[in-house]
């Protein structure tokens, strides 16, 4: 008796978010290090510390600008920090490393051509080896649901149905 791999013969398309994971390293920049006692922003001192910082260390990196203390900051503080890091970094946002990945996926997935998945069953591949945030799966689902016949999550051998187009 011949063993037939029905998964390999199916028209199932796999959408793997790891294929789009950024190649650059992701770093969180904690601006509390430039605040007095980690909480108080003195504008002159803050600007001096920013001007003396080694910004080249962020070359080609994804930088998430955050503050790990409960400091109350003026709106311009993180924007000013961003103005220094933007010339070096590949991608900059306010928040955590997870926030930057969510924003990156939001931008990246909006630019893709989804016609390959038109009227086909799609598996949104789970079990990532990389830190793909759960929000990225929802973003991908929003795009795929417009074109796919059906969408499942996981692996071909154990997929969980998520969506089926009503005809």
UniProtKB/TrEMBL annotation:
Query: What domain of life does the native source organism fall in?
Result: Bacteria
Task: List the source organism.
Answer: Flavobacterium croceum DSM 17960
InterPro entries in UniProt: DUF2480
The name on file for this protein is Uncharacterized protein DUF2480
List the taxonomic lineage: Bacteria, Pseudomonadati, Bacteroidota, Flavobacteriia, Flavobacteriales
């Amino acid at each position: 008796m011949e063993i037939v791999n029905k998964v390999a013969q199916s028209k199932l398309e796999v959408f793997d978010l790891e294929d789009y994971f950024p190649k650059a390293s992701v770093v969180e920049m904690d601006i509390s290090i430039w605040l007095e006692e980690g909480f108080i922003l003195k504008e002159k001192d803050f600007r001096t510390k920013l001007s003396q910082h080694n910004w080249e260390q962020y070359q080609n990196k994804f930088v998430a600008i955050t503050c790990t203390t409960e400091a109350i900051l003026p709106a311009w503080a993180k924007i000013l920090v961003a103005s220094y890091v933007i010339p070096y970094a590949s991608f900059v946002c306010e928040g955590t490393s997870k926030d930057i990945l969510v924003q990156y996926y939001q931008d990246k997935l909006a630019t893709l051509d989804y016609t390959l998945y038109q009227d086909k069953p799609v598996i949104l591949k789970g079990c990532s080896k990389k830190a793909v945030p759960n929000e990225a799966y929802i973003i991908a689902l929003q795009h795929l649901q417009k074109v796919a016949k059906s969408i499942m999550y996981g692996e071909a051998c154990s997929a969980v149905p998520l969506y089926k187009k009503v005809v």
